[in-house]
Design goal:
alpha+beta, seven-stranded antiparallel β-sheet, 21 strands
């Protein structure tokens, strides 16, 4: 298929345009993207002009680099990318460690998370197109409202109105870290791409601490939605990763209740017979490795430009439907073999006075759309 043509100036995530835009790809995916017809250079590190430097309507220089296998992203950025650059890394199948602050410097970095789950070329193309449509300023407003409401309420509740489950979260109990992958990047910042996720974790998000947990989380949580199974670097884990994803896939339509005490899963119950296979798989996982019992992350997707990719797809974590989506994280690689995320679009986050912060209770009805039924379907 022809390469996807993109205009880097469409990515508002980077903020005001700088002199240089740098695209970093893997060797195999260098031909997947074309930056404003004629700007491609075979990944050699040459640059091309997209617009006149004085026109004010785009970047004055584009740099394309290939990340060789075995080379750290931070190493390549530090030694090959200008200090003022806006950097987009799209390297499906390669695990990208976050650059250190020294390596990143004043550059702004966005990374498509494409190494821990098996993204196809069509998935990559879809998320690149979606990123150009993402309302980054809107994300910043949603995040500000979110943190204002959360900060003013010491007790939050996650509710599923269909099943009637409730879990209370006192975020003042014990240590927790609030994270924001949304809004405009500042100098020295790095974000996922497309952006649009807020979260609270039991410790720093990239460091698994076995004793850390969200101590203020108690009650029942409903899992009903797409699961995501992340693996680490070893390709040999791919087959078990797919098997685990397929075993958890019944959660898309059938719910399981998690019984939580002090941020730890004490038991689980399938809500319907159809959820029983997923419940059995989860129970086995919790028994074989008790570290999965810890609720490591409560996440909140706020990107309303994306749609769910019906597959094991890491970037699904930013999916925000129309009013935001609660998601749940168990485990973190490489401390655990897999890291699991569960989208819960039926759930809502509400404050102590009943105000809907995010989720199903805040969803905006999109209106009735004309529907066409046929034997075929369009896949992103």
């Amino acid at each position: 298929m022809p390469p996807l043509e993109l205009d880097p100036s469409d990515f508002d995530q980077f903020g005001p345009l700088a002199g240089t835009f740098c695209l970093i790809t893997s060797e195999r995916h260098g031909e997947l993207i074309s930056l404003n017809s004629g700007s491609r250079d075979s990944g050699s590190g040459n640059s091309a002009s997209l617009h006149s430097p004085d026109s004010g309507d785009g970047y004055s220089r584009v740099l394309r680099l290939t990340l060789p296998p075995g080379t750290r992203l931070g190493e390549l950025i530090e030694h090959r990318v200008p200090e003022d650059a806006h950097v987009l890394a799209v390297c499906p199948g390669q695990f990208l460690d976050s650059p250190t602050p020294r390596e990143l410097g004043a550059r702004r970095l966005a990374v498509l998370p494409a190494g821990s789950t098996p993204l196809t070329d069509e998935h990559v193309r879809y998320f690149l197109r979606t990123a150009a449509l993402t309302d980054v300023a809107g994300h910043a407003r949603v995040a500000e409202e979110f943190f204002d409401l959360v900060g003013d309420s010491d007790r939050l509740t996650i509710v599923d109105d269909v099943s009637g489950t409730e879990a209370e979260f006192d975020h003042t109990a014990g240590e927790c870290v609030w994270n924001m992958q949304a809004g405009v990047l500042e100098e020295g910042d790095q974000q996922i791409f497309p952006s649009g996720k807020l979260s609270v974790t039991a410790a720093e998000i990239t460091t698994f601490a076995p004793e850390a947990r969200l101590l203020g989380l108690h009650g029942d949580l409903t899992l009903r939605g797409w699961p995501i199974v992340h693996r680490h670097r070893d390709p040999a884990d791919g087959a078990d990763q797919q098997r685990l994803f397929e075993a958890l896939a019944p959660l898309v339509s059938d719910a399981v209740t998690l019984h939580i005490r002090a941020g730890s899963i004490e038991g689980l119950t399938p809500q319907t017979p159809g959820a029983a296979p997923a419940a059995v798989e989860l129970e086995k996982l919790l028994t074989d490795d008790p570290r999965y019992r810890v609720i490591w992350e409560l996440g909140f997707g706020i990107n309303t430009s994306t749609e769910i990719i019906p597959a094991n797809c890491g970037p699904n974590e930013v999916y925000g439907a129309t009013g935001g989506v609660v998601n749940l994280g168990l485990g973190i690689t490489p401390a655990t073999r897999f890291a699991l995320a569960f989208l819960c679009p039926r759930s809502s986050l509400v404050t102590s006075d009943g105000t809907a912060v995010l989720g199903a209770r805040k969803a905006v009805r999109r209106g009735r759309m004309q529907r066409v039924s046929s034997a075929g379907c369009g896949c992103h």
